[in-house]
Amino acid sequence: MLICFSSAFAWAMACAAQLLGDRLLPETRALIRDNVRRRVVQPYLDMIEGRRPLNWWVTATSNWNAVCLAA
Fold it and tell me: What are the contacts of 33-36 at 24+ separation with CB within 8 A?
């Protein structure tokens, strides 16, 4: 469940940074970009590329994979 929330939060932050653009300080945009990459994107890539264990929902036969990835 935390993965779903982190993905949704990262998406919201990335959208806000994109929409606000130059109205945000460059440091703030970099902070958002770096944290989204470090906390959400890179751990997911590490998981699907075999550098860390798969989360249980990735191979589950329920709809958890679709639910979590849809965020």
Answer: 36/10
Quote the Cα angle for 59-11-49, to 5°.
35
Is pTM beyond 0.85? Reply is no
* Contact call for residues 28 and 18 (beta carbons, < 8 A): no
Note the pLDDT tens digit of each residue in 8-20: 889 999 999 999 9
**Dihedral of the alpha carbons of 23, 25, 26, 28, in degrees to the nearest 10:** -110
Nearest to 9 by CA among 32, 28, 29: 32
HEC sequence for 5-48: HHHHHHHHHHHHHHHHHHHCCHHHHHHHHHHHHHHHHHHHHHHH
The domain limits of the chain are 2-70
